[in-house]
Design goal:
Blueprint (H helix, E strand, L loop, with lengths): L4 H9 E4 L6 E5 L2 E5 L3 H10 L9 E5 L9 H17 L2 E3 L6 H9 L5 E4 L13 E4 L2 H10 L1 E5 L4
Parallel strand pairs: 3-4, 3-6, 4-5, 6-7
Antiparallel strand pairs: 1-2, 2-8
Length: 156
């Protein structure tokens, strides 16, 4: 197959649209990474929809951003995330297990996959041959609910 690695991955995951730089496409998502800053809100919205499972092959929630315990709020969020991960089929990484992007890369990183997350460091997955991008919380929720996201084709 011709084209850059990015073009090949997007082409393999393309559901709708034209792979022209700047254009909008709908792609199938392989992996969703959630971290504890945005995950409680995203999962609360997911839970309110009444779905039985997430609709991506792999989703994981990591507690690594809000590990300082000055009050009960972070602990409450972490317990909530643990419980919704069990209920909806996400992998769970408890506080102290490591930095989300590094742990995710070590456990699940794979060339040719498409990964989204609500964090700017998500692009680290490109070093493993994946198309990995940060998105807003609503976009990440869309991936969990539908298995796909809309995104703008990057210039390569």
């Amino acid at each position: 197959m011709k084209g850059t690695m990015t073009e090949q991955i997007l082409s393999a995951h393309l559901v709708d649209g034209d792979l022209q730089p700047g254009g909008q496409i709908l792609v199938r998502v392989d992996q969703v990474l959630l971290q504890d800053v945005f995950a409680p809100q995203i999962m609360a919205q997911f839970e309110s929809m009444g779905l039985a499972r997430v609709r991506v092959p792999l989703a994981a929630a990591y507690c690594d951003h809000e590990v300082y315990q000055f009050s009960h709020e972070n602990t409450d969020d972490h317990r909530y995330l643990r419980d919704v991960c069990r209920k909806y089929g996400l992998y769970w990484s408890a506080p102290g297990y490591g930095i989300c992007h590094q742990v995710h890369a070590e456990r699940f990183g794979a060339p040719g996959t498409l990964l989204v997350d609500s964090d700017s460091h998500t692009t680290q997955g490109g070093g493993l041959g994946a198309f990995a991008t940060g998105m807003g919380g609503q976009d990440v929720l869309q991936a969990l609910v539908s298995g796909g996201v809309r995104l703008r084709v990057p210039e390569v």
